[in-house]
Amino acid sequence: MQRKDVITAIIIFLGLSAAVMIGKWIAYKSAGVTPHEVYKKLNQTSQ
Fold first, then answer.
1. How far is residue 38's CA from residue 33's CA, in Å, rounded to a whole number?
2. For residue 33, is pLDDT > 80?
3. Rounded to an integer, what distance in angstroms lies between the CA atom of residue 12 and that of residue 28?
């Protein structure tokens, strides 16, 4: 692994993470709920 490959891998990983976060945010916004409310619901159902 060369240094450039490592940097490229990190950039791709960060890009994927950002895409997932944005995707979740859009899904929550279109559903009309905040991630915090969803988190509370998940906690209630898991107990």
1. 7
2. no
3. 24
- pTM here is 0.49
If you average pLDDT over every residue of the chain, what do you get? Answer: 85
Q: How many domains does the chain contain in total?
A: 1
Residue ranges in the chain assigned as alpha helix (H): 3-31, 35-46
- Say yes or no to pLDDT of 47 above 70: no
Query: Do 6 and 13 touch, CB atoms closer than 8 A?
Result: no
Determine contact, residues 31/25, Cβ cutoff 8 Å: no
Joined tokens for residue 8: 């490229």
Its domain, for residue 10, covers 3-45
